[in-house]
């Protein structure tokens, strides 16, 4: 390994991705069709019975609990199984002795477990949701009753996450929330895989619950500092409206929470890298 290529070599990185695919190809080849089938069955069960109306009885916002559920389940299955070479002592030795740098091994797993998941899962959900909706309406709509058509509103990110606000800054902030919070969850699972190894799919989610408690405690503390005489500690209703940022539209407590989440994502990635570097040594 040449000194100038000790940190990162694109050819080695590609070989590392090929190695990972060869060892986990069954999981990768079955992941997308398996996820689509599971999501389709769940949505089919929960889709409503039609009623004679020109208005859809299932709005795009009704998909939100299901996309969140998918993030939880598939995030645990994919990010929770990061660094599969750590599942046994023999496999760990073999993985650490691969002719690749620590950064290349980290980046390969980051791309597969975090980047690809965050890009592919929303697309898979959108395709599955709308395909299932089309099939459901085709099977359940009487051919002579046109009023039953369109009873299920198709899924779009704009409608589901209310991204049609007149203020572009607010839309951008909503997008940041939608992306950052799931990313933090799988980033934490990515990190805990270096600690819990083969038990990460079970113990990793517990660490997420602890993190959620920390975020909740942080928000409650901010509420108390901003308005100590009308805080949750005194049993009163918590006011979230003031102060506001981003053109006086986004409450400061929400903005600061999102900034904290983004910071925690980077901390998880850096900690994972140094954990891997520690094992490499």
From TrEMBL:
Keywords attached to this entry: Membrane, Transmembrane, Transmembrane helix
| Parts of the chain that traverse the membrane | 26-47, 59-79, 114-139, 169-191, 203-226, 252-274
Q: Tell whether Transmembrane is among the UniProt keywords.
A: yes
**What protein is this chain from?**
Uncharacterized protein
Taxonomic lineage is: Bacteria, Pseudomonadati, Bacteroidota, Cytophagia, Cytophagales
